[in-house]
Amino acid sequence: MINKIYKSALITGAGDGIGYETLKRFLKEKIIVYALDKNVKKLKILQKKIKFNVIELDLTDTNKLYRELSKLKVDILFANAGVGRGAEGILKASRDDIEISTKINIESCLHTLKAIVPKMVKNRKGHVVLMGSLAGLYPQISTVYGGQKGAIHRIAQSLRVELSGSRVKVTEICPGRTKTNFAEAAFEDKTKAKKFMSGFTLLEAKDIADTIMFALSTRWRSNISTIEISGTEQSPGGVPIYPVKDPILT
Amino acid sequence: MINKIYKSALITGAGDGIGYETLKRFLKEKIIVYALDKNVKKLKILQKKIKFNVIELDLTDTNKLYRELSKLKVDILFANAGVGRGAEGILKASRDDIEISTKINIESCLHTLKAIVPKMVKNRKGHVVLMGSLAGLYPQISTVYGGQKGAIHRIAQSLRVELSGSRVKVTEICPGRTKTNFAEAAFEDKTKAKKFMSGFTLLEAKDIADTIMFALSTRWRSNISTIEISGTEQSPGGVPIYPVKDPILT
Amino acid sequence: MINKIYKSALITGAGDGIGYETLKRFLKEKIIVYALDKNVKKLKILQKKIKFNVIELDLTDTNKLYRELSKLKVDILFANAGVGRGAEGILKASRDDIEISTKINIESCLHTLKAIVPKMVKNRKGHVVLMGSLAGLYPQISTVYGGQKGAIHRIAQSLRVELSGSRVKVTEICPGRTKTNFAEAAFEDKTKAKKFMSGFTLLEAKDIADTIMFALSTRWRSNISTIEISGTEQSPGGVPIYPVKDPILT
Amino acid sequence: MINKIYKSALITGAGDGIGYETLKRFLKEKIIVYALDKNVKKLKILQKKIKFNVIELDLTDTNKLYRELSKLKVDILFANAGVGRGAEGILKASRDDIEISTKINIESCLHTLKAIVPKMVKNRKGHVVLMGSLAGLYPQISTVYGGQKGAIHRIAQSLRVELSGSRVKVTEICPGRTKTNFAEAAFEDKTKAKKFMSGFTLLEAKDIADTIMFALSTRWRSNISTIEISGTEQSPGGVPIYPVKDPILT
Fold first, then answer.
1. What are the Cα distances from residue C117, in Å, to A70, A74, A222, C170?
2. Are the beta carbons of D236 and A234 separated by less than 8 Å?
3. Could you report the per-residue pLDDT of D62-106, keeping only the tens digit for each?
4. Going by C-beta distance under 8 Å and a sequence separation of 6 or more, which residues neighbour residue B4?
């Protein structure tokens, strides 16, 4: 159960996947929620059953981002929005993949923090939850996505230092591969996307939502700084050898 | 609630602090527990109220460790035992501090894994919870304690790789400063110990037990690899300057 | 001495500081250099003494970036360009600081890699040197700058995985505070900037250039993946306490 | 060239491999060297050609360690001694492997620091070089060796904090797989050992010695904190999937 000191929340990327799952949990606990997404179709349907606020917003539109978010004062910020474009690596990513994914995965996250966190500091209460990734913690194939999630890891850790003494808490959730529509967006090739998301028992959005609910349930004095969660059948690591046919001898 | 696939547990360092708090949680959930400690006074008192097994064992006694643990087959291993000796750093630690703390904080942990984990692998079920520390994740003053908890961090991460495909899960809990008798053991000077443990709202053993219960509650498919938890008023980090009066110019 | 397999190099941010110092070293070793910067004043002066190519380019201009860099084929890429805007943290950074620094510190670095690295892969030879920072490795005060350099750290590590088997090497240099014009750009307040850059024996640009030359001097078989260098009087770390006057008790 | 402020050095594990290679470099630069090893055969032969001191010592003999090292006052400590026993992981390691490798790889390193570093602090000059490993930085198969090298990583980082303001510098070298007799000691099975050390262009002891010489060559003001070096054909990382035939569904 979410700590009773929190009454309201903003969720970015709330329209589907982990954000949507978390939204439903928040609503069950009577949190006043602002659910932000570019695609609000599922949100509009949910709104027919339960009351909450929808913000239709493409996070690459920085002007609108500040305009919309400057109105809000919330206790919880779940900066969840992210995109897998470029997840196949720098060699395969297009110029557009790089631009859009950097904008959404890092820049809009910083703008969102800028728009929301100072009010938490002033209000001397708040909890920021950032959506990291295993890709932000360990070396892996994607220079683009890994770099962006690596930024989130360091943003979370530095924000905690920056907010020292403010009573605002910061949690980073770092999941492994999760059954969402991430892969469909990340890979152009549908067969590849399907393969990426099969062959083992994947994490599901509700597993990740559980970690967020746990972090938000703690007493104020204790801060869950980081939760790393992966499929039990997925283990980051190893120091593989990639022999080259024609090594250079000097 | 602990996942129903787990029926039994071994807790090392169960006689006090985080281990003792976790023991009480396990018992509340009807887990068959083997509670191991060198000092079993509190355990003997608890045994009068509720049924569980006590193993009186000094973990520096490797022969007895293997003798006692070779008899056990458990679903959960909470390798919690640790000692703060040497926490003031290499310059202040004695030879004895180094020997005993390395033996307890690292070597006995590896022996415990050696004695218990192969049976989990054979049984194709199990959950290992390792007690890390912020000191194992970030640079801080103690070369001795930090080094030892740094070992635990890497043990947890490598054990996960080693157990890939075995169905056995591995979780590492990395707490910041917690209200236990750690400081009394870590500092000879009682005033220092008291100061170390005051001046802010410390974590308590039950905060840490909450994280363990959460990790053990997850579905099998999802593994909580790491939880980093610190007092909200404690933030690892910073890149401080230590000016030297007489820098060397070459 | 730079490994003889390398004949040419592109340096971004070559107009001053670490980039300029490295440029001079490369020229001394007869490397054909493309020196890229927005401000080419110092480069123009140097060109009067020694022959090399200058590319006048603001890295926020992505069109021009691809236009200029698509012409080049080099053995060494030193992706050094970076800006300290926002280094005071998210609470003090302006919207502009966030936009421009994300564009330069991360996005343009990815575009530069995209423009240059595939040709190295095709040519089966190359060495990418990325400019990280202590701020990318450890939690510290700046959410903005730290996040961006955290991205570089993960970019470097993932690029190495992505380039496995390609014969292209990747090195990340992570310096602490260095006597350059970084602080002047990072802090609006000149007194603050001066204070940031005094009080201890700072690293100098030539110390960092030494590390780059060392990494480039190694035999092909051995890759200097990361060099972390800090002022001897500067040590990242510590787990400080920030007591709050009015802690929340639930 | 080693910084002129250093005149003398202690090398542990100097009898072969990286230690021996570094010894020869030190002697070439007229450093007064104390070369410590359990097996001094190669050292005795070298002594016939060039003058230096040999300390015959098994580092598991803590009494003798303190007795011998308490006599020394050196400017450089290269704590290089280490053993690969247990490198196949906790499931394959024997009780003896765990005991001996923990003793040598961690405990004796702490004792060596305890015996040598306080004199450096008093003398206000010194440089400690610690032998880490990729295995100490990234998750990989060996719980035993990885844990021990993880300890060294955190020892190096915390020692730097502990020695802040003392003028003593601390460098950690983290190599990947290197052509030494490591594998022969690490694997009982000679075929396995051979396989471990073939199939790609391995690092050689001289590559590692180069990094040490570089770190010791820097001006006093700049500290090479960490150098990570791997075979160009070896890249830590990846987030592999290990599907289980019989996943548990709860």
1. 41, 44, 45, 11
2. no
3. 999 999 999 999 999 999 999 999 888 999 999 999 999 999 999
4. D250
Of A134, A140, A199, the CB nearest to D243: A199
CB contact under 8 A, D98 and B107: yes
Q: Are strands A222-231 and B222-231 parallel, antiparallel or unpaired?
A: antiparallel
- Report yes or no: A80 and A53 within 8 Å, Cβ to Cβ: no
To 10 degrees, the CA torsion angle through A9, A13, A19, A24? 60
Report the distance separating Cα B31 and Cα B7, nearest Å.
Answer: 5
Would you state the pLDDT for residue D205?
Answer: 97
Question: Could you tell me where the beta strands, DSSP code E, fall in A24-100?
Answer: 32-37, 53-56, 76-79
Residue D188 pLDDT exceeds 90:
no
Write the pLDDT tens digit of every residue in B166-186.
999 999 999 999 998 877 777
| B50 pLDDT higher than 90 | yes
Q: Is C164 exposed, middle or buried (0-12, 13-18, 19+ CB in 10 A)?
A: buried
Distance between CA atoms of residues B173 and B176, nearest Å: 10
Neighbours of A1 (CB within 10 A): 8
- Which DSSP string corresponds to B25-90? HHHHTT-EEEEEES--HHHHHHHTTS--EEEE--TT-HHHHHHHHTT---SEEEE-----TTTT-T
CB pairs under 8 A between B and C: 103
At position B102, the amino acid (one-letter code) is T
Count other C-beta atoms under 10 Å from residue C24's C-beta. 16
pTM for the predicted model, two decimal places: 0.97
List of residues 6+ apart from D232 with CB closer than 8 A: A244, A247, C167, C169, C220, C221, C222, C223, D201
A-chain CB neighbours of B218 within 8 Å are: 207, 210
* Closest to D220 in 3D by CA, of D126, D131, D128, D116: D126
CB contact under 8 A, B234 and C242: yes
Dihedrals phi, psi of B54, to nearest 5 degrees: -110, 130
Name beta bridge partners: D130.
D79, D172
Phi and psi at residue B77, in whole multiples of 5°?
-115, 115
Cα R_g (chain C), whole angstroms: 19
Q: Which pLDDT belongs to residue B192?
A: 83
How high is the ipTM of this complex? 0.96
CA atoms of C104 and C37, how far apart (whole Å): 12
**Rounded Cα distance, A204 and A223, in Å:** 24
pLDDT above 90 (res A248):
yes
Report which of C148, C213, C203 is spatially closest to residue C2, judged by C-alpha positions.
Answer: C213
Task: Burial-class residue A142 by CB neighbours within 10 Å (0-12, 13-18, 19+).
Answer: buried
